[in-house]
Amino acid sequence: MPKWNIDTTKVPDVLYTVIGPLVSINIGTFNSMKTLPDCIESIKEQNYENYEIIALDSYSTDGTIDYIRSIGGLVVFGDTLGSARKLGAIESKGKYVFIMDSDQKVTGELISKAVERAEEEFDAITVWEKPIEVKTWVQKLHAYEKYLFHNMEHTDAYTGDAIPRFFRSSYYKQVDFDRNPPQTMEHNAIWEQIQNMGARSSYIPYTIWHRDPATIRDLWRKFFRNGFYYLEVLRHHKRLAFHHSMPRNCYFSKEVMMKPKVFAAFMYIYFIKATATLCGVLYSLCHAKTKNFGHNPIVS
Questions:
Q1: Do residues 190 and 233 both lie within one domain?
Q2: Is the residue at 5 inside a domain?
Q3: Residue 1: inside a domain
Q4: 274 pLDDT tier (thresholds 50, 70, 90)
C-alpha cells in the first residue's frame, strides 16, 4: 500500500481559496479539443486562483487555439514541443512554472500544495501520476508501475523513474530548450538540466491524472514514434538516453520479484517498447531527408 495516508482520488466538496505567487501553467497542445476542455476545467476547479495559462501549440487546426484564447489564455507556437516550450518559458511571468499535457487533469489542491512546498525552498516538485482510465491489462500494469515508482520517491534525472512537473521559474528559464529533443524524453531533458543546476526537489502526495496506452497496439505506436526521434536524444543527452532505455528500477523491487507473473509481464511490456523504439529508429534513418519534427509523419 502507498506510504501516504492521504486519499488523492477525491477532492473535498468545498475548498478554501488560496492566493499566492503567480503560477504559469504551460500546456502542450496539438489538435487537443477532445481532451483540453477537461484539462482546463480541472485547473479552474483548483483552490488556487493566481495562475496564467499558456498553450504550447504546434499549429492546431481543430479549434484548440480559439478555445485557449476564449478563456483568456496565451498561445505560443513552435514546430516542436521543445521550441514551443522555449517561447512558453519566455512568456511565463510566474514565480513558478507548472508543465502539463492537454490530456491531463489535476486534483483540487495540487497547485496550492505545490506552491506551499516550493515556498519551503524547494525548486522542483514531483506529484503522484495516475491513469484516468484503468480497464485493460496494459493500463492496469502501467497503473501498478506508477504506484511502485512513486512510492520509491526516486527522482534522480538519470536513475530515477519519476519526474518533477512544477519548477521554480528562475531555474526553468535557464533551460537550453534548443538542445532538447523535439519529443522523446523531452521532459526528462528539462529535469536533467534543472537538476544539474543544483535545484532541490521534493514530492507531494497529490495527483495529476493522465491517459495511458490501452492496448499493445497503442503502446507500439507510441514507442515507434519515440524511436523516430530517439537519435535526437542521443545527440545531446547520451547519459539520459542510456539510463532511460533500460528497464525501470521498480521492475526489480522486492515487491515485484516476489510476483513472477508480474515481473514477466513487465519484461514483456519492456520488450514491446524496446522493439518498437528500435523500429522507429530504423525508420527515421531510412527517412532522414523527409523527417519533420513539427508534425509527426508516421502517427496520426
A1: no
A2: no
A3: no
A4: very high
pLDDT of 294 > 50? The answer is no
Same domain, residue pair 264 and 126? no
Buried-exposed string 149-184: b where 16+ CB fall within 10 A, e elsewhere: bbbeeebebeebbbbbbbbbbebbeebebeebbbbb
Query: Cβ atoms within 10 A of the Cβ of 3, count?
Result: 9
DSSP, residue by residue, 64-93: HHHHHHHTT-EEEE-SSHHHHHHHHHHH--
Q: What is the spatial distance between Cα 192 and Cα 278, in angstroms, rounded to a whole number?
A: 23
Whether 259 and 175 map to the same domain: the answer is no
In this predicted model, what pLDDT tens digit does every residue of 224-258 receive, in sequence order? 999 998 998 888 889 999 998 999 988 999 999 99
The Cβ of residue 255 has, within 10 Å, a number of other Cβ atoms equal to 12
Helix H segments across the chain?
36-44, 64-70, 81-91, 110-118, 137-152, 169-172, 186-196, 216-228, 230-236, 238-243, 254-257, 260-286
Percent of the chain scored above 70 by pLDDT? 90
Residue 112, sorted as left (phi over 0), alpha (psi -120 to 50) or beta, turns out to be alpha
Judge whether 40 lies within some domain. yes
126 pLDDT above the threshold of 90: yes
User: Which residue range is the domain that position 136 belongs to?
Assistant: 23-210
